[in-house]
Automatic annotation (TrEMBL):
Protein name: Cytochrome P450
Gene3D superfamilies linked to this entry: Cytochrome P450
Family: Belongs to the cytochrome P450 family.
Keyword presence, Transmembrane: yes
Pfam families, A to Z: p450
Keywords: Heme, Iron, Membrane, Metal-binding, Monooxygenase, Oxidoreductase, Transmembrane, Transmembrane helix
Cofactors required: heme
Keyword Hydrolase listed: no
Transmembrane segments: 41-60
UniProt organism field: Roridomyces roridus
GO molecular function: heme binding; iron ion binding; monooxygenase activity; oxidoreductase activity, acting on paired donors, with incorporation or reduction of molecular oxygen
Length: 597
């Protein structure tokens, strides 16, 4: 993307000539033809013909495309994906509807109605004559992500929108570029980095100290905010070897605390906080582009909305990356004399084995920060929410943890692997509220997907279709998980339900994706979350929700109450940018564990 011209101007420069070239040609054609024929066509008629030419051409092109699709579907022995009920011409009414839902609805609102109306787990949204095949069916997602992954890409449009923040990093590239980035990042995650536990331990202590202090003063804490700081401090430390210390900055009080006690300012932490805020803002802005679709540049007519926050992000990161590159250079010079191997400590050190290009290094580390931070924060927030509203689960989990690790000892890798119920609680939380509930790909070559009903013909997917998929719906489908699919029941990952539902069909649970682009940090995330949860349950014996602590507009609306499923049951408001989070956080209190037990 150009740094000089704003996205909107570039967009118009690309689109306007395409829009006006046909009417212009037709107008000129009519003008000169009539002149040569010696007749005079009035100006209004010329203008009318010229302006009608574009819609006529578009309709013609669309009819031709439809005919081609019918023929291709027939030759593949396939049927069309059910169309959603129409929202006006070109289905454009669907867009404001979805925008409203994103702002005020529950995740999946709008799409749920489409799935219900057609009775099909896969539907075609077909907005502006573009096929958008939204699937929630495990076999289709398996094809997209794993079995036929070569036929699907993130696509240029997705990358163009993300480019000003994520560049060509692993999360935002396809093909050879993606292979290059994945290849240089993978080794770090393949190694067993025991030292991470040192990083987690120190920040976990900080979190618990803040919680204890707040509870002692009678205040609740925003667990999402605190744990977001924990994941940010941990991530920056293992990525760059420099911790942003966001846990040392001012920590917010709930909206209903009239006179929050003054907090001491740690100037360094506040600067770092600015980095965190700018990073968040940039993420929110690129997510908005994805939601607006290909016309997003029109909403950034005069300025690139990510430019200002990225300036702050860059000002923070550039010196860190510069210093690391310099250190590597010096080490290489020394090595010639003293052959001393430099042990790669941080992910940045590790990446430096593959490249010294500061832009590549920054793209890659920012991609990992994006991929790893909010996702992990969200899952831990949901776990603590469920432990708050289901105290029996909390008690059982705590007993298992104390049995394996005791009340104070620092957990090891082995402990964490052994506490099966802990992993089941984490899995169950990610099943109901996955960090990446919706995702999207584009299909390169025409193909077919098996029909969910095996007695029906397969489904036709034309080349160039968008293929968004919703693990959110798949994870809650009663056909796949049984009648209690909407209940929080971690035991389903351990008891007879595991054999009955999940084991025969492992692709119905995909919190980390699957196939060649499966989450690189899956193991890391389980370790980080498990470590923190063990520490929390050693320190506290129970959690409660502080519903008053949530700002009124962040509480679930009254008319959701008693609706079926989790939408009617849960007491927070889930929201989405690139990943899921909860509006205004998660305000909780906890009871300190009795140190004698
Ligand atoms: C509970 C926590 C996490 C969840 C639920 C999660 C989930 C996901 C998902 C669904 C994707 C696929 C995105 C896509 O292809 O469009 C992904 C990709 C990725 N994740 Fe995670 N993630 C988590 C934590 C982490 C952590 C801690 C890291 C690193 C420190 C990480 C690094 C990555 C990377 C680098 C990718 C891109 C892989 C590629 O495209 O080849 N993730 N993650
Ligand atoms: C949790 O889910 C993962 C898949 O992400 C699976 O490999 C693991 O066996 C599950 N563990 C438990 C205890 O549920």
């Amino acid at each position: 993307m150009s740094k000089i011209l704003p996205p909107g101007v570039l967009f118009l420069a690309r689109v306007l000539p395409r829009l006006f070239s046909l009417p212009l040609l037709v107008g000129l054609g009519v003008h000169y033809a009539s002149r040569r024929a010696g007749t005079k066509v009035p100006v209004w008629a010329t203008l009318l013909l010229a302006s009608a030419s574009l819609p006529v051409y578009l309709v013609y092109r669309n009819l031709r495309k439809n005919a081609r699709h019918r023929a291709e579907a027939a030759s593949l022995g396939a049927r069309f994906v059910p169309l959603v009920p129409s929202f006006g011409v070109g289905n454009v009414g669907f867009l404001p509807q979805m925008a409203w839902n994103r702002k005020f609805g529950y995740p999946g609102d709008g799409m749920a109605e489409c799935l219900d109306a057609t009775g099909s787990p896969v539907v075609n949204f077909r907005v502006l004559w573009q096929d958008i095949m939204f699937t929630t069916w495990p076999q289709h997602i398996q094809l997209i992500l794993a079995a036929d992954s070569g036929n699907y890409v993130k696509g240029e449009r997705f990358q163009y929108g993300m480019d000003s923040v994520l560049g060509s990093g692993v999360f935002n590239s396809d093909g050879e570029m993606w292979k290059f980035h994945r290849g240089m990042t993978r080794p770090y995650f393949a190694r067993d980095k025991i030292s991470h536990f040192d990083i987690f331990d120190q920040h976990a202590d900080d979190v618990i100290a803040i919680m204890k202090q707040r509870f002692a003063g009678g205040y609740s804490v925003n667990f999402q905010d605190l744990i977001g700081r924990f994941t940010m401090d941990s991530a920056t430390e293992f990525l760059f070897g420099v911790c942003v210390d966001s846990l040392k900055a001012n920590i917010p009080y709930a909206h209903n605390v009239a006179f929050p006690p003054p907090q001491s300012h740690d100037a360094r932490a506040e600067t770092a906080n600015k980095f965190v805020e700018a990073f968040n803002e940039a993420m929110v802005n690129v997510a908005e582009r994805e939601h607006l679709g290909f016309v997003w540049p029109l909403f950034e007519m005069f300025r690139d909305k990510t430019a200002a926050p990225m300036k702050i992000v860059n000002a923070y990161l550039d010196p860190i990356i510069g210093a690391a590159v310099e250190k590597k250079r010096t080490a290489e010079l020394l090595k010639k004399e003293a052959a001393a191997e430099v042990e790669a400590e941080t992910l940045l050190d590790d990446l430096l084995q593959s490249t010294s290009d500061p832009k590549v290094l920054k793209d890659e580390t920012l991609n990992i920060l994006l991929a790893g931070r909010d996702t992990t924060m969200h899952v831990m927030t949901i776990v603590i929410y469920f432990l708050s509203i289901y105290p029996d689960v909390c008690t059982k989990l705590r007993e298992e943890i104390l049995e394996h690790v005791g009340p104070t000892r620092r957990p090891t890798h082995e402990d964490i692997k052994d506490i099966k119920f802990l992993r089941a609680v984490i899995n169950e939380s990610m099943r109901l509220y996955p960090s990446v509930p919706f995702n999207t790909r584009e299909c390169i070559h025409s193909t077919t997907w098996p029909s969910p009903d095996p007695n029906e013909k397969p489904l036709y997917i034309p080349a160039g279709s968008k293929t968004p998929y919703g693990v959110f719906f798949m994870h809650r489908n009663k056909e796949l998980w049984g009648p209690d699919a909407e209940e929080f029941s971690p035991e389903r990952f351990l008891d007879e339900r595991l054999k009955k539902y999940l084991l025969p069909n492992p692709f119905q649970f995909l919190p980390f994706n699957a196939g060649p682009r499966i989450c690189l940090g899956q193991q890391f995330a389980y370790n980080e979350m498990s470590f923190m949860l063990v520490r929390l349950l050693q320190a506290f014996s129970s959690f409660t929700l502080d519903e008053e602590g949530f700002a009124p507009e962040a509480r679930p609306p009254k008319d959701w109450k008693n609706l079926p499923g989790r939408k009617g049951k849960d007491r927070f408001r889930p929201a989405l940018h690139l990943t899921m989070y909860t509006q205004d956080g998660m305000w909780i209190r906890a009871k300190e564990a009795d140190p004698m037990i």
